[in-house]
Amino acid sequence: FDKQLPIFPLARAIVPGATLKLQLFEQRNLKLIRDCLSSGHGFGIVGLKSGAESQMDSSIESEFYPAGCRVEITDWDQLQNGLLGISVHAQERFLIRSASQHEDGLWSAQVEWLADEWIDSPTADQNQPELGSEYQGLIDLYHSLAAHSAEAVDPIEDAALLGWAIASLLPIGNSDFAELLAENDPLSRLQLIAKKIDQLTMQ
Fold first, then answer.
1. How far apart are CA 127 and CA 87, in angstroms?
2. With pLDDT > 90 as the criterion, what percentage of the chain qualifies?
3. How far apart are CA 110 and CA 191, in angstroms?
4. 8, exposed or middle or buried, with CB in 10 Å at 0-12, 13-18, 19+?
């Protein structure tokens, strides 16, 4: 993938495998989508740290977290309210190394692509380790969260899939998402998620 990526800061980050529907009306965002559709390339979504998704007031600066996901546009349609509706599917993770804002307000960034590294697995370069019985509680939690949110329950085959499936359903903030997105070891990521779940239950 190209290391130069258009960036779309959002109020809530997205994780690999997740889908999202967006409604767009600002001309700069419509231009971004047109460019992505014509080139066949996706764009990057990052979570906002401050500011707003809509920058109608140019005096308000946006700040966002450096870890995000590249998404691909899977569907688009002109909505009855006159807005452009798109559906995106999150793919690869990345880390922003430098970012710049263009005159039209759009952001682009030089990114480093991230990949899972199975640190504790003797087969790190081959097969992903299967989930052991110690993760059954998290698997049960995922099934419960998915049922509660009316989301389809996907088959979970490894720690990476389980981690992202749970994270996409948790009521956590963008700082939490950024920490998870920057972690390359799926098992360490699961441990982080378990800690965040403990913090949520204590609130």
1. 32
2. 32
3. 30
4. buried
Measured CA to CA in angstroms, residue 40 lies from 43, 81, 92, 174 at distances of 10, 26, 16, 28
Give Cα separations from 168 to 18, 31, 114, 149, 164 (angstroms).
Answer: 7, 28, 18, 11, 6
Rounded distance between C-alpha atoms, residue 76 and residue 20, angstroms? 12
Report the alpha-carbon distance of residue 12 to residue 46 in Å, rounded. Answer: 8
What's the pLDDT tens digit per position in 101-160?
888 778 889 999 999 987 655 444 445 556 666 777 788 877 888 777 766 666 666 788
96-100 contacts, C-beta under 8 A, 24 or more apart: 96/7, 96/46, 96/66, 96/67, 96/68, 99/7
pTM: 0.82
Q: Which residues contact 77 (CB under 8 A, 6 or more apart)?
A: 84, 85, 86
Rounded CA gap, 76 and 29, in Å? Answer: 14
